[in-house]
Amino acid sequence: MSIAYTWEELYKNRLNWAFTARNNFIRSISDNDIHKAIALSQSKETIISVYGKPQVGKTSLILKIIGIKDEYIFSLSRILRGNRLIGDSSTSTATIYKASIDNNFWVKSNINDMKSFDESGLKNCLDSIRNKIESEACEYIEKIEIYIPLIYFCEKKSNEFIDMNIIDLPGIDSSSSKEHSHVNSTIKKFIPISSLVIIVEAANDIARLKRLCFPDIKHWSYYPDFFRIVLTHSVSARSTKSEIKNCSEFNVSFFRSIFIRELSLTLDTFFNNEMQVYPLEYGESWTQLKEKDNDVFEKTNVFIDLVFDELLEDIQNSVSDYNQLIISAKIYKTISHLQQDKLENFRISIETKKKEEERFHKQIESIKRIKLNLIKRMEKYEANISIFKDFELNIAAHNYKGEKNRKSLTHYIRKEILRYEEEVKKEVNKYLSNKPSIINELELIQEARKICKMKTKSFIDIQDKHLIDIYFDKLPFSKWDNDLNKCNQLLSQICSEINEKITRMVDNKIDNYITENNKLHKINNGKLVFFDKIFDNIVNDNELIRIEIKQMNKEMILYKEASIRDLETAQRFKEFLTKSFSDEYIQVIQKINSPNVDVEYKCIYLAYLKIINEEFEKLEAVM
């Protein structure tokens, strides 16, 4: 092995000891979520994800990064929309844009070989891919690669960015219901394996940054080493133009400070001051600004380019291996934020469960009251049914002896009828005492009167009306006895019919009442059975909630204990780094001191020691 080759290998692997320390450090942490946070990319290829809502300028930003000429960005963005209308989501799956080997468009996916297209063909191809995703009628389209003709690129394009996998991600909040599942899976796959995530948002809608809800994105503010914020339409916003016009000493620092201030005010404590923010303007809005407000354009043109150059440099530095080590060195703050968030989620979940338990408890008490009322009603219906027995009205008719008074028969009939009414009232009230009122007394009296009136009229109609109205003492004795007997017969008939009719009426009322009570009893019994089932279900659910709360409290306690250990481990990253460096140092010293190693190689190892010592000191400085 030549000296040159040995030196090349040593220099290329000069940070291997540091990565060994990093891997040992990651393995020592118990929380899987923290693993994801500090080991975002284990892939050899560099992946940068760009996330944002439709029409915010994600695709245009990527095109600008990979070196598309400014005059082509707007028209090329339209082509890459397929045939989608402005305002609709255009990115249906993870998309990577690269330079073509010729002046044709080429499309490649994980399920299809590379195919060549003109502009129209490319639009139709992108529409076809979207339709397949929405219909789920094909294999899972993980990502597509679109190769753009060379004529669109600047002559001095950066090969570093051309070779990067800068992924245009679909927005989870902008996808249709048909493609939502696919978009969700796509984001879930690529965010964790990205070396850097660029969140793109319009400068006039920065409050939306606080509402990002996807699990791997919503805590972006905690991780300033993993996320970058690009604000589009930053110059064309009316409030920004006003500040730019009124500023006499306009520079990049002032320009950026406008948006840092706005982010701090809008997002408050959620915004992390360590976050890198890049206010930009490009594409159609930038062209329109040049035409409509050239003064602002001229004043900001140079600074927009400077901000963009800073972004490019930041991307290059952020995806380096060395930067990943620095991220690990700063991991204590990341872990602390993540743990606080998880503990807060525990507390929120437990509080939610407790509220659910309280709601169940109120429902249980409410159902208990309902059941008690139903039981009382059923007992009442049962009591009502049991206290009613057969009713029989038994009013006796008087046998009038016949005092000879003026109009005495008429008087006797009227007097007897009034007595019947009183007897009906008295007997019915006696029967109904301590019983529910089911009979209208007036109705019974009217029925008795009706019988009396009908029978009396019938009697009078067949008698000599004159005879019963004259003085009895002027009648022959035989006539008197005859009329008296007829009168008594009439009253006896009236009495008998009243007894029978009123008894039948009361019996019917009782039967109807008992039938109604039986019906109500049955209905309430059905309700009671129904509420018994609900009660049992709620009691069971409530018991499950109690078990869940108990389990969640137990898990939270265990997590707190593990969190303390993880935080202690995070603070010890320097120990892992020092040990790994020491092991590497000792191995190199052993080679230098070995009699079997030539002097030339010993010199190389001495130079290597100097390099790794410098690298160790640089890493120590950021911890």
Question: Any overview of this molecule?
Answer:
Helices cover 64% and strands 7% of the residues. With 623 residues, the protein is of the alpha/beta class. It folds into 4 domains: 89 residues, no CATH class; 143 residues, no CATH class; 124 residues, no CATH class; 240 residues. Helix 1 packs parallel to helix 20, helix 2 packs antiparallel against helix 19 and helix 4 crosses helix 5. About 3% of the residues have low confidence.
Give the spatial strand order of the biggest sheet. 4-3-5-2-6-1-7-8-9
Helices and strands, in N-to-C order? HHHEHHEEEHEHEHEEHHEHHHHHHHHHH
- Care to count the β-strands? 9
Helix content: 55-70%
The termini sit apart by 38 Å
User: What is the radius of gyration computed over CA atoms, rounded to a whole number of angstroms?
Assistant: 49 Å
Overall geometric form:
elongated
Number of H/I helices: 20
- Class inferred from helices and paired strands: alpha/beta
Quick one: biggest sheet? 9 strands, mixed
Mean pLDDT, to the nearest integer, reads: 79
Poorly predicted ranges (pLDDT <50, ≥5 residues)? Answer: 40-44, 462-477
Provide the β-strand percentage band: 5-15%
**Count of domains:** 4
